[in-house]
Structure formats: structure tokens, C-alpha cells
Specification:
The complex is a heterodimer of chains A (159) and B (355). By secondary structure, chain A is mainly alpha-helical. Helices cover 51% and strands 9% of the residues of chain A. In chain B, helix 3 packs across helix 11 (319-326), helix 8 packs across helix 9 (283-298) and helix 9 (283-298) runs antiparallel to helix 10. The chains are: A mainly alpha (159), B alpha+beta (355).
């Protein structure tokens, strides 16, 4: 179920905007917000998607969330059909799940897993534990312990 | 160096020594993998691509696997040689035509290739002669494990192996089988087969993969779904449907023999005759005639050539192969003349061996 991209109530209107040949944009909007959407869409005129003048508002309107690792926006993916980095699967998981459902009929992997996954997971758990200990050490101003933990974290991260 | 030998050898998978090799040319397994610490190839900077290439090159060269892979740095390989590798099915057309740091590790017998910096950082493929998906999977699985000992893969427990395009995510597995289906094409039953395959989510493509047309009556059947099914499930879905197609093709061949034996014999003999004597030959006509001869051999109507030798001719008459043998660029008319010269010489050689 999509949320309205303008007010976060359940979206009941689903629009596919054809920007140019092969380029599409999807919009999900609730009925109360729909008239305003149409008004904005008619006023854009210059071919740019929904210009409002305010970058923050635009970002919210278009779901233009950016991946902190690679800078990809979901619109970029819609246009190029390629993701930018492994982290995108995490960042855009809510948008990707319906798409994966469409392509594969499923959204969960059931095949092979890398052999060293258990090891990686163990290391990640240790890393998380050390970071928590570090936070607590700093809170109680135990700087000797904190320095020790910082070194441990560094070694773990490098591994 | 492998590039200098390609025109005088042929890949092991072309030799028609695998199961059902009269109809199934080859079975192929492809795995898509990415390194967890870099952007996907399309978003990686030139510097990052160079780093990825250097790392993977090291891993591939040190890979403890028999046969050992030879690594080619594709940014220093000339376009003609890259085209040669495409015709050999060792690299994709996309990798050949792209730019920047990229490469491929190739086994001398051409059964294995590992592409670097294709759409995904790693595209590993294993090709076997005939209907042998399980053997191909076993090799691919093992190679994947060995590579993973060094290369930290991008993997999520929810989505599996993470790929640049969500159509490959999950197992990253594409299993495909290349079939020669001349009788189903002639009897026009092929469309029915396609529709049935599409219904069960299998894709049908031509000889050179995505977007290529089915010349020479060759068809590649592969899975589309990569997520939510295990590798063995995906492979068994294809493995289970292929015997039915083989049966249809065999049946169509028998019907043809029963109803039109003389006409078929005539078409096969004329095809063979043209290949042995023409002095201009397009790639398209060559594929068409070779397909007829291949059918003739399988029906017992032509006996002067083997299926393995024919398979090789399909590949060795492609443009880059012809130009590599001559050592120079040829325009299309020159190629057509050279192709017919090559065919005449090779067929005479085969005939002499038989006598």
C-alpha cells in the first residue's frame, strides 16, 4: 500500500507521468491532495517535474530521497533502470519491494548464501557491541577504556 | 596467449560430446556478483573501476581452480579481438563495447569465463556441451565459493546477492540452454512452444542473447525469475521442460522425413553443395545453410561431416573470426568473399579427412 506523497495518508490515485520516450515517473496521491497535484502539474509548463521553487518541498513531493553512499535518487533508477550501489537496496526497500514482487513474484531470497556470512555477521555483532561499550565508556568519562575500545573498533573495521 | 589461438581452436562446449548434442548445443550458467564496498559499475568513478579491476584481476589470477584462468585486460585489447571474444561467447557485447577498466578471465578450454566490470562487477559463466545444466552449475557454484573466499560479496539476507539491475537480484543466476530447432521452425510449431515457455516465465532469445534474432534456428531458453527460488529450483524448472521440447523437435523431424523425405534430402544436399561451391556468402545465408546441413546430418541424410565440425563452422564464419585469420579489417563484400573461401577450404579439408 502506497502512502500519499503529499500528506502521508493512504494513496488512492496512482499516476504514471510520461516524461519523454522511455522515461516515466510514478506518483501516488490521496483524493484530497489530487486537485492540488493537477494544478501543479498544469503549471509546471517547462517540462521539469513539478517545480515548486522550494528544494525541501520538492524533495518531499517527489520522494527524492538520496542514497547517502552513492547519491542515487529513486527517480534516477526509474529512468536508467540500474541501481547505484548495494546500499540502495536498503535505502529504497519500500519502493523496491513492490517492484521485485512484480518481476519475480517474490521478495525474499531463498538460495545460496556466502560461506563467510556467519563470520561477517559475528564480526558485525562484535562491532556493534564495542560501539555501545564505547558510548557508555565516554558517558562515564572512562577515557582509558574508551581509547582501548576505539582501537578495537578500528581493527575490526579494517578486517 | 589465448587470443592468438582462438581461430585455430574451438571451445570444448562446441564439440557436441555432451548429452542430446544433436539438439542441445550447450548449457550455460551465469552468476552475477558485486563487491560490497564499491558502487555498481554504472556509478563507479574511473578510479573506483580501476581499483575493482585490479582487485578482481588479482583474485582471478590466484584462483585455485583447474583449469587455471588466463586474464585479459580488455582496455588494452583491440576492438577486433574483443569482437572475437564476443563471437566465442566468452564476453558480452556490452562489455566489448563499453569503456574504462574492465577485463575477463578465461579458461583455455573456453568452458569458464569471468567478466569484470560488466553491468555487475563480476559475471561468472560456465558453458558445457549438450544438455548438462547440473554439471555447469556444479562448476559455477565451486568457482563462486573460491572467488568469495577473497572477494567480499554484496549480499543481504532479505534480497540475496545484490545486483545493479533488480531483475538479477537474489541468486544472480541465469541458467540457459541453447537449442537447434529447425524442424519446429519449418513446421511452424515453434510459436506454440514459445507461448508455453512464456507462460511458465522462461525467456526465449537468439544465438547471441538479449535482443539478437534467432538465426540458424538457434534458440536460447533461460529463466527470468532470480529471486524467491533456490538455484536448484531454478535449474530444475528449465531442466524439466527441455526434454519435452527435444521430444517435439524429434517428432517434427520424423514427420518431415515421413511426409517429405525427398524434398528434405534435396534441401540438405543443395545447402551442402552451395556451402562447398559458392563464391559470395553472407553471414545470414551461411547460418541458414549450415542449419540445413546440421539437420541433414541428424536425420542421417548427410554423412560427410560431423555435428562438432558444423558447430565450429557456425562460429568460425563470423566476421571477427574471418578478419582475425586474414589479419586485417574487411568490408562486408570482402567478408562475404572471404567467408565462402574459408567454407570451401574447410569443407574440402573435412572431406579429405573422411576419405
Amino acid at each position: 500500500m502506497h502512502k500519499c506523497e503529499r500528506c502521508a495518508s493512504p494513496a488512492t490515485v496512482h499516476i504514471t507521468e510520461i516524461l519523454s520516450e522511455g522515461k516515466f515517473e510514478e506518483h501516488h496521491i490521496c483524493e484530497p491532495c489530487y486537485p492540488k497535484y493537477v494544478h501543479d502539474a498544469q503549471n509546471k509548463g517547462d517540462g521539469k517535474p513539478l517545480g515548486t521553487g522550494s528544494p525541501e518541498l520538492e524533495e518531499a513531493l517527489l520522494g527524492q530521497q538520496e542514497c547517502p553512499s552513492c547519491g542515487l535518487k529513486f527517480v534516477d533508477f526509474r529512468n536508467k533502470h540500474r541501481l547505484g550501489c548495494p546500499n540502495d537496496y536498503q535505502v529504497f526497500q519500500t519502493d523496491l519491494r513492490p517492484l521485485l514482487e512484480n518481476i519475480h513474484g517474490e521478495t525474499r531470497h531463498v538460495g545460496k548464501t556466502p560461506r563467510r556470512l556467519p563470520k561477517i555477521k559475528k564480526e558485525e555483532a562484535r562491532l556493534a557491541e564495542c560501539r555501545q561499550k564505547l558510548k557508555r565508556a565516554i558517558e562515564r568519562e572512562d577515557y582509558e577504556e574508551a581509547a582501548h575500545l576505539r582501537d578495537q573498533i578500528k581493527t575490526l573495521e579494517e578486517a | 596467449m589465448i587470443l592468438d589461438n582462438l581461430t585455430s581452436t574451438s571451445g570444448e562446449w562446441l564439440r557436441a560430446n555432451g548429452p542430446e548434442a544433436d539438439i542441445v548445443i550447450s548449457s550455460r550458467i551465469r552468476l552475477a556478483r558485486n563487491l560490497s564496498t564499491y558502487p555498481f559499475t554504472n556509478r563507479a568513478s574511473a578510479h573506483q573501476k580501476a581499483e575493482i579491476e585490479a582487485k578482481l584481476r588479482g583474485y582471478i589470477e590466484k584462483l585455485d581452480f583447474n583449469p587455471r584462468l588466463e586474464y585479459l585486460n580488455l582496455s588494452t585489447v583491440v576492438p577486433l579481438d574483443r569482437q572475437l571474444l564476443v563471437e566465442r561467447q566468452l564476453i558480452s557485447r556490452e562489455l566489448a563495447n563499453s569503456e574504462g577498466p574492465r577485463g575477463v578471465g578465461v579458461a583455455p578450454n573456453e568452458i569458464i569465463s569471468i567478466m569484470v566490470n560488466e553491468e555487475d562487477h563480476i559475471r561468472l559463466q560456465v558453458i558445457r556441451s549438450g544438455f548438462a545444466l547440473d554439471d555447469a552449475w556444479q562448476d559455477a557454484d565451486q568457482l563462486d565459493d573460491k572467488l568469495e573466499e577473497r572477494a567480499p560479496y554484496a549480499f543481504s539476507e532479505e534480497f540475496g546477492y545484490l545486483t545493479a539491475c533488480p531483475t538479477n537480484v537474489g541468486t544472480g543466476l541465469r541458467a540457459s540452454v541453447m537449442l537447434h530447432l529447425p524442424a519446429l521452425v519449418l513446421s511452424k510449431h515453434i510459436e506454440k512452444v514459445f507461448r508455453a515457455l512464456q507462460k511458465i516465465n522462461l525467456a526465449v532469445r537468439g544465438l547471441y542473447g538479449e535482443g539478437s534474432r534467432a538465426s540458424g534456428d538457434f534458440y536460447q531458453i533461460s529463466n527470468q525469475v532470480t529471486l524467491g527460488k533456490s538455484e536448484t529450483q531454478i535449474i530444475s524448472e528449465i531442466r524439466d521442460v527441455i526434454p519435452q521440447i527435444i521430444t517435439y523437435e524429434r517428432q517434427a523431424r520424423q514427420d518431415m522425413l515421413r511426409d517429405n523425405r525427398h524434398a528434405i534430402l534435396d534441401r540438405c544436399s543443395r545447402a551442402f553443395g552451395t556451402l562447398k561451391s559458392a563464391s559470395m556468402m553472407t553471414s545470414e545465408e551461411t547460418m541458414d545453410l549450415l542449419s540445413w546441413v546440421r539437420l541433414g546430418v541428424n536425420l542421417g541424410l548427410v554423412d560427410q561431416i560431423t555435428i562438432g565440425e558444423l558447430n565450429e563452422l557456425f562460429i568460425h564464419t563470423q566476421p571477427a573470426h574471418l578478419q582475425k585469420v586474414l589479419g586485417k579489417q574487411l568490408d562486408s563484400e570482402e567478408r562475404n568473399s572471404e567467408r565462402s573461401r574459408f567454407l570451401r577450404a574447410r569443407l574440402r579439408e573435412i572431406e579429405n579427412q573422411m576419405n
